Amino acid sequence: MTVPWLPELPIVQAPMAGGPSTPELAAAVSDAGGLGFLGAGYKTAGAMRAEIDRTRALTSRPFGVNLFMPSQDDADPAAVAAYRDALAPEARRLGVDPGTPSARDDAYDAKVADLLSDPPGVVSFTFGRPDAAVISAFQERGTAVVVTVTTAEEARLASAADALCAQGTEAGGHRGSFANTLDGALPLRDLLRAVLAATDRPVIAAGGLGTPDDVAEVLGLGAVAAQLGTAFLRRPESGASALHKAALADPAFTSTALTRAFSGRPARGLVNRFLTEYSDAAPAAYPDVHYMTSPLRKAAAAQGDAGAVNLWAGTAFRDAAEVPAADLVRHLAGLR
Ligand SMILES: Cc1cc2nc3c(=O)[nH]c(=O)nc-3n(C[C@H](O)[C@H](O)[C@H](O)COP(=O)(O)O)c2cc1C
């Protein structure tokens, strides 16, 4: 299937909110013939626009911007309060107080309005699907719309999009499921087959991909491109913290797991002390838990304590080497 708005190489650099996605990374990937992405999650609309401007100054090639859909979580206040109490010893140890839950919409409306006023080539959505009116408003402006899906049912619900990003359970970072649940979660190859059977939309495959063979395999199964996040984390252009980059290469970290411990939504990270101790207690309450653990994560990072920060990583984290992003794009596409 030919998709006119995708670049010549079938490699998409995953949007990675929280620091790793930078204009430099997106521009390097797009300039190399892949599709670079900015992650607008957690940012204000103004900060998102500043990153778009900077990326446009670095590359004349198309790139994408990713938005989080507003949280639909009906968080149980008692469960949120109990988790706050459970965090108290950890907060005391780090010398901070747990944070206070705040806005649940990630400034979605402001970001959509800003993007529509001067849109990038591609916009993708995570944690749900936008309204039909938002999808068509982008399409009328020539912007391709991608929706992240984690089940065949979500794929059917998102069929107005120009493409779907099928995210398997192997993926690093947050699962982009519409609801805060692991129900129906599938590993990438199974999900890809299910999504391709459920919709005629082009499908971008994401989750646990790390090598040219992995990319060739998902293209062989029918994906139009492969989206990789973890593989880009240790690149010089990545804004991942030094602590995160070091942990990905540290033999002391041997596995990854899905957890709600840091944010209240399932996300995959390297198994560290905090993940081990808090996963069972963490409620399905996003972004409440994200706000509560924020001061703890910041303090732990400042203290160089890799045991208490979220070290997002997919199952193929061992493939994440330190070469420049452009070299990785060409390597993954089988060009060298
Ligand atoms: C550090 C990190 C941050 C992420 N942030 C986002 C994000 O802001 N938006 C999004 O749609 N996906 C995000 N993801 C998920 C990616 O889009 C993608 O599904 C995932 O990286 C693919 O799996 P891989 O990491 O094994 O390559 C993130 C992944 C990582 C590793």
UniProtKB/TrEMBL annotation:
GO molecular function, one term: nucleotide binding
Catalytically driven reaction(s): 3 propionate 3-nitronate + 3 O2 + H2O = 3 3-oxopropanoate + 2 nitrate + nitrite + H2O2 + 3 H(+)
CDD domains assigned: NPD_like
Swiss-Prot/TrEMBL GO biological process terms: response to toxic substance
Protein's UniProt keywords contain Nucleotide-binding: yes
Pfam families, per the entry: NMO (PF03060)
Protein keywords: Detoxification, Dioxygenase, Flavoprotein, FMN, Monooxygenase, Nucleotide-binding, Oxidoreductase
Required co-factors: FMN
Matching InterPro entries: Aldolase_TIM, NMO
Family under the similarity heading: Belongs to the nitronate monooxygenase family. NMO class I subfamily.
Task performed by this protein: Nitronate monooxygenase that uses molecular oxygen to catalyze the oxidative denitrification of alkyl nitronates. Acts on propionate 3-nitronate (P3N), the presumed physiological substrate. Probably functions in the detoxification of P3N, a metabolic poison produced by plants and fungi as a defense mechanism.
Protein name: Probable nitronate monooxygenase
